[in-house]
Amino acid sequence: MSVNRFIWQGREISFRPGESIAAALEAAGIVRLGLDALGRETRYFCGIGACQSCLVRVDGTACEACLTPARSGMTVTPLEDRS
Amino acid sequence: MSEPDIIIVGAGPGGLAAAIAASRTGLKVEVIEQRHAPGGAIYRQPVDGVEPVPQAAAAKRRWQSLSTRFAESGVPVRTHSVFLGIDGDGTFLIDDRDRGKLDRLQPRGVIIATGAVEKVYPRPGWHLAGVSTVGGLQVMMKETGRAPQGRILLAGGGPLLIAVAAQMARLGNPPVAIVEAGDPAKELAAGLQILISPGLFAEAFSYLRTVYRHGVPWLRGHRLVSIKREGQDLAAVIEDRKGSRRRILADRIGLHDGIRPNDFGMPPETTVNRAAPFVIHAGDCREALGAVAAEADGERAGRMMAGLLAHGRHEINELEELVARNRRSQAVLARIFAPVQSGSLLDGLTDETILCRCEGRTVGDLRQLCSRPDPLTGREIKHNGRFAMGACQGRFCAANTAALMARLRPDIPAPAPGDLIGRRWPARPVSIGTLVGVPPHAEGQDEVLR
Questions:
Q1: How far is B116 from chain A (nearest CA, A)?
Q2: Measured between alpha carbons, how far is B387 from B189 in angstroms, rounded to an integer?
Q3: Structure pTM?
Q4: Calpha distance B67→B51 (Å, rounded)
Q5: From first to last of its 450 residues, what are the pLDDT tens digits of chain B?
Q6: Does residue B134 contact residue B164 with C-beta atoms inside 8 Å?
Q7: Fewer CB near the last or first residue (10 Å), C or N of chain A?
Q8: B351 with B364: CB under 8 angstroms?
Q9: Which domains does chain A have, with CATH numbers?
Q10: Torsion angle of alpha carbons A7, A13, A17, A23, nearest 10°?
Q11: Beta carbons of A40 and B360 less than 8 Å apart
Q12: For residues B153 and A60, is the Cβ–Cβ distance under 8 A?
């Protein structure tokens, strides 16, 4: 994979170094971040790690998309991967 | 390794000012910060090579001065580190997310400077993807240097809406409208003159001028009452002061009804008990008054903590006066932006409206719990109804739930948001792997829960 890209749902997402996962997905036009355990959409909301609405999994571990910096080669998946 | 005497939680203006003040006395100070760089929400820095979002000159100067003084202090910052709590024997717990490891420290003093969170009233549809806080849109702009794309609607109340609208306009995508519950234009001139700082006046004026120049409708005395998804659009219903309604279509909606201290689940202040670490709250997480007050209050907290640990004298009178001045300015702003419509948004909510975003608990669920003949306490509402129990720890539902309970049961003493939340750690979700010391991606550990 080329530098400054990560995988989201089989798609390569480019980012600028230092950018959060949320910012990179936003720039790619992705607003719906998948489903949570209750089957509801996860999504960006507060931007400061307080609301827990934007949880995704980075290589399996749940974390806030708004706080977590994007890194080359990481695989980001929805909290509940039901595909 | 020598452990820090003082740990400061949060590297915004409050935390950094506290660190500078406390380190002057020679005590060993460390700051922990959840992001990769200091600044907090107010001074969030752009990624490398990106022009900072246009902002007021005074704010730029404040950050330049603060960040320079902080760098000179030599106080280290642990980044990607999330404060979990202080356990029963005074051990301070940090989720070190880079290493997937729990750090346990025994500081003598802890300064909590976790800033503010936005108040957002529930509205039907406020949980939909594409709806965020206005502050959420703003920190994203600060980070990326880009305005949110598409048709953006800002709604709620307060000066932040104007500031964000102006910043979006300067980045090339002004919002389709600003829906403002108050009618500040009516009282603006009078109100702003009372504001102590001429700098604040210039800042507000410059933002307003930008908003007008770009022809952004500023719908004063209006409120956003519901949001629906219609195909690719978000359809917002806007109500004016006479009760007439209209729809505005948008791609993204920002909501903001004010700010409040982000002190949820935080250990209370302790300045007498010698067994546990001293705890002082500083900045917006003590009282949400904005960046200028937060910096002064951080300095106050840093001096106080140094005084407690070194048994020295500390002078904080002039800092308290500065905080008080900001309190008066904020009170004037609150008056200028007071909602003009009588009745609370909370009164007209449909039963299906989500109140607790984490677990999907609705207004109807709460109404049912509140109709029991034997009235439930705040704590029982939490345990029976799961309000304030989810992953956000009640940050976005506890106050709304408490306020709605008070309206549903006017004859019973109203619960405080803290009654619902209670005190507990972790203050933030943490993986079980981290808590029990299993390194991330250990063999056989395919599921890590946070």
A1: 10
A2: 42
A3: 0.94
A4: 18
A5: 578 999 999 999 999 999 999 999 999 999 999 999 999 999 999 998 898 888 888 889 999 999 999 999 999 999 999 999 998 888 999 999 988 899 999 999 999 999 999 999 999 999 999 999 999 999 999 999 999 999 999 999 999 999 999 999 999 999 999 999 999 877 666 566 555 566 667 778 889 999 999 999 999 999 999 999 999 999 999 999 999 999 999 999 999 999 999 998 899 999 986 678 999 999 999 999 999 999 999 999 999 999 999 877 778 899 999 999 999 888 888 888 999 988 888 988 999 999 999 999 999 999 999 999 999 999 999 999 999 999 998 999 999 999 999 999 999 998 999 889 887 788 888 888 888 887 655 544 444 444
A6: yes
A7: C
A8: yes
A9: 5-78 (3.10.20.440)
A10: -110
A11: yes
A12: no
Which chain A residues contact residue B448 at CB under 8 A?
60-62
Q: What span, in angstroms and rounded, lies between the C-alpha atoms of B369 and B385?
A: 7
Neighbours of B242 (CB within 10 A): 7
Closest by Cβ to A51, choosing from B34, B49, B392: B392
Q: Which residue of A has its CA nearest to B137?
A: A47
Cα–Cα dist B417/B379, whole Å:
10
> Cα(B281)–Cα(B14) distance, rounded to whole angstroms?
9
User: Which token pair is B132?
Assistant: 């965020």
Tokens 């209050």 belong to which residue? B297
Provide the CA B188 distance to its chain's centre, in angstroms. 26
